[in-house]
TrEMBL record:
<dbReference type="Pfam" id="PF16499">
    <property type="entry name" value="Melibiase_2"/>
</dbReference>
<feature type="domain" description="Glycosyl hydrolase family 98 putative carbohydrate-binding module">
    <location>
        <begin position="488"/>
        <end position="628"/>
    </location>
</feature>
<dbReference type="InterPro" id="IPR013785">
    <property type="entry name" value="Aldolase_TIM"/>
</dbReference>
<dbReference type="InterPro" id="IPR002241">
    <property type="entry name" value="Glyco_hydro_27"/>
</dbReference>
<dbReference type="InterPro" id="IPR041233">
    <property type="entry name" value="Melibiase_C"/>
</dbReference>
<dbReference type="InterPro" id="IPR013780">
    <property type="entry name" value="Glyco_hydro_b"/>
</dbReference>
<dbReference type="Pfam" id="PF17801">
    <property type="entry name" value="Melibiase_C"/>
</dbReference>
<dbReference type="Pfam" id="PF08305">
    <property type="entry name" value="NPCBM"/>
</dbReference>
<dbReference type="InterPro" id="IPR038637">
    <property type="entry name" value="NPCBM_sf"/>
</dbReference>
<dbReference type="InterPro" id="IPR008979">
    <property type="entry name" value="Galactose-bd-like_sf"/>
</dbReference>
<keyword id="KW-0326">Glycosidase</keyword>
<keyword id="KW-0614">Plasmid</keyword>
<keyword id="KW-0732">Signal</keyword>
<keyword id="KW-0378">Hydrolase</keyword>
<dbReference type="InterPro" id="IPR013222">
    <property type="entry name" value="Glyco_hyd_98_carb-bd"/>
</dbReference>
<dbReference type="InterPro" id="IPR017853">
    <property type="entry name" value="GH"/>
</dbReference>
<protein>
    <recommendedName>
        <fullName>Alpha-galactosidase</fullName>
        <ecNumber>3.2.1.22</ecNumber>
    </recommendedName>
</protein>
Length: 635
């Protein structure tokens, strides 16, 4: 697949270099499609919200605990606020019956699944959840075996029987299992892990001792170049096809759980409704930061119907319990700002009013569920403090200021962070306290250790005629991001993993995505600058990229474009072109580093999809950063 893409690029580039402005070759990935390629399959126009058993109980889940959580969601009013999915994670399965391959449920834990005819069924359980106005989620693995079997075999709820009976994962059974779980049993969400294609190498003791059959591995979690990315992607693609067949009404959620491996960031948006960006979260501050970082610079890779998932909430537990109120609130506020799925992982039977007030903060939920679907963008990025700004559907803004350190700090919030005018009044409403305040130009805010202040903001926009593209990341999709070989993102905080501590030589950059397109930054996190001209707003991408932009009624596109001053190659040449529903509407000449930015203006009235193509003079250009400076859509 990757090779075909590359060949197409080289072909197109050589046609252009030879002066032949022929129609682009069919395989040219930079050719405009007039199409928004984020998946329309499944239903997650807003980030899914609910509860999952794993963080509360690991695999020791049963019907009583699950139904208690469901009842609590309804009784506390959290369900009415949007927390509707009740998801069973690992631990529900007993075995795969060998006569017909049907999965059997552990009825000792889920008595209502006993059907009397020798089968088992979750239908009575999902019926009860549905009758309560809730939705039901279940868990599987894309390989033959589960994560529990691979990594937590001492936890309860492990499959039983012989080797074949214990093969409870989807591998070789995709159609059958999806039909069973999402059809016959009536689940609405399926979370699909990848341990079975990661952990079962022939060398693994679990395999060499005869407990499990070898498979692959297709995923090397630590190493992208030793991962068979197309094979992994194809397995999930087949799940997508089975889901579409099983649920023609399109009323389901596919939750991909590949922990940022297999370069999933680059393809999940075409397949999944939410996709894990990292290792499992742990109930401690440093690992919350790790998970946050795995998603926070991926603002252009989250869109309505396909969200970044930095993992479930740990609000209520460990360093996020009510004795750690700053941390609990920060975790909640940051997940809300990132448009992360809000999936509670707490034993709801024990929830206190204080905890409920955090999880149930309506103002934060409204940010997360805002129809604009824009993940917050980092307006200030640092190891001590970060400032996240999220543009809302009504054009308003929210800002979160995070103190990553344990000690108090002062931070300056400026009008520029908010893209608001510094000569007029800016109003803030604190979303935890409701307190109102105002400032012009900049304000000093005091943050306690680990505190996140979060505000709704209003003021006069710097760009009143429309929106910068970097304010609408949910409508900008790097369909082709120009990355030649996927590389791991080195910007993720690496706090101690509780189960590993300092064993080994440390945690390495592992999540593919370095070099992906960014809002208000280059793909490598620098300020945008072309020919010495700085751009505080814009989209940073790589040469040989194609960005899709959904146009909601805007009439004009404008940007000042060029090869970014941070590009490594001084003589690579790039040509910028804008398409409206597939028609070319503006194009630059060939540009190289140091050239002054060129203005591209184009009427786009009536066009549904605008595409921004930065075509290099060679298909294999690497690290050639390009900037769509001040790119904006105007009314
Ligand atoms: C993996 C997932 C977790 C959880 C466990 C279950 O680790 O990332 O979220 O589902 O498997 O074993």
């Amino acid at each position: 697949m990757k090779r075909a893409v590359k060949t197409g690029l080289l072909l197109a580039a050589s046609l252009l270099a030879n002066g032949l402005h022929a129609a682009p070759a069919k395989t040219d990935p930079l050719a405009p499609t007039g199409h928004w390629s984020v998946t329309a399959k499944g239903q997650a126009p807003l980030p899914p919200m609910g509860w999952n058993s794993w963080n509360a109980f690991n695999s020791d889940i049963d019907e009583e605990k699950l139904m208690a959580a469901a009842k609590a969601l309804v009784d506390t009013g959290l369900a009415a606020k949007g927390y509707r999915y009740v998801d069973i994670d690992d631990g529900w399965w007993l075995k795969r019956r060998q006569t017909d391959g049907r999965l059997l449920i552990r009825t000792a834990a889920f008595p209502s699944a006993q059907t009397g005819d020798g089968n088992t069924s979750f239908r009575p359980l999902t019926d009860r959840l549905h009758a309560m106005g809730l939705k039901a989620g279940i868990y599987s693995d894309i390989g033959r075996n589960s994560c529990g079997q691979a990594y937590t075999a001492d936890f309860k709820g492990q499959p039983e029987g012989n080797v074949a009976e214990r093969e409870v994962g989807l591998y070789d059974h995709i159609d059958q299992d999806i039909g069973l779980m999402m059809g016959e049993w009536g689940f609405d969400l399926i979370k699909i892990d990848g341990c079975g294609i990661r952990a079962m190498s022939p060398e693994n003791k679990l395999v060499s001792s005869g407990q499990y059959r070898a498979l692959g591995p297709l995923v090397d979690y630590e190493n992208l170049s030793r991962t068979d990315i197309p094979a992994v992607r194809d397995l999930y693609r087949r799940v997508g096809l089975a889901l579409a067949r099983t649920r023609p009404a399109n009323d389901y959620v596919l939750s991909i759980c590949l922990w940022g491996a297999a370069d999933v960031r680059s393809w999940a948006k075409e397949l999944g409704n939410m996709s894990r960006t990292s290792e499992d979260i742990s109930p401690n501050w440093e690992r919350m930061l790790h998970n946050l970082d795995s998603a926070s610079r991926r603002e252009l890779y989250a869109h309505p119907n396909s969200w970044n998932d930095p993992d479930m909430l740990y609000v209520g537990t460990g360093e996020f319990d009510t004795a750690h109120i700053q941390e609990a609130r920060s975790h909640m506020a940051l997940w809300a700002m990132l448009n992360a799925p809000l999936i509670i992982g707490y034993d709801m039977r024990k929830a206190t009013p204080e905890l409920l007030s955090i999880l149930g903060n309506s103002a934060l939920i409204a940010l997360n569920q805002d129809a604009g679907g824009n993940q917050a963008v980092l307006a200030y990025d640092g190891d001590t403090a970060q400032i996240f700004v999220k543009t809302l559907a009504d054009g308003g803004k929210a800002v979160a200021l995070l103190n990553r350190t344990g000690g108090p700090i002062d931070v300056k919030l400026t009008a520029a962070h908010l893209k608001l005018r510094e000569d007029s009044r800016i109003d803030l409403t604190d979303l935890w306290t409701g307190a109102q305040s105002r400032f012009t130009k900049e304000t000093n805010l005091h943050l306690a250790g680990h505190q996140t202040l979060v505000f709704r903001v209003s003021g006069a926009r710097v760009h009143p005629g429309g929106l910068y593209l970097s304010e609408m990341p949910g409508s900008v999709n790097p369909a082709v991001d120009g990355i030649v070989e996927p590389m791991a993102d080195p910007m993720v905080y690496r706090g101690l993993l509780p189960w590993r501590n300092t064993r080994g030589d440390g945690e390495h950059p592992i999540y593919g995505g370095w070099g992906g397109a960014r809002a208000d930054a280059t793909p490598y996190g620098m300020s945008l600058r072309v020919g010495g001209v700085n751009f505080s707003s814009g989209i940073g991408a790589l040469a040989n990229s194609r960005l899709e932009v959904r146009n909601a009624g805007y009439r004009n596109f404008a940007a000042r474009v060029g090869v970014d001053d941070s590009a490594l190659s001084p003589d690579a040449r790039v040509r910028f072109e804008v398409f409206a529903d597939g028609r070319s509407v503006a194009r630059s000449g060939w540009m190289k580093r140091g050239d002054q930015p060129v203005a591209l203006n184009a009427p786009v009235e009536g066009a549904r999809i605008i595409e921004l193509v930065a075509r290099g003079d060679r298909g294999d250009l690497q690290n050639v950063t390009v900037t769509w400076g001040s790119a904006a859509l105007d009314r």
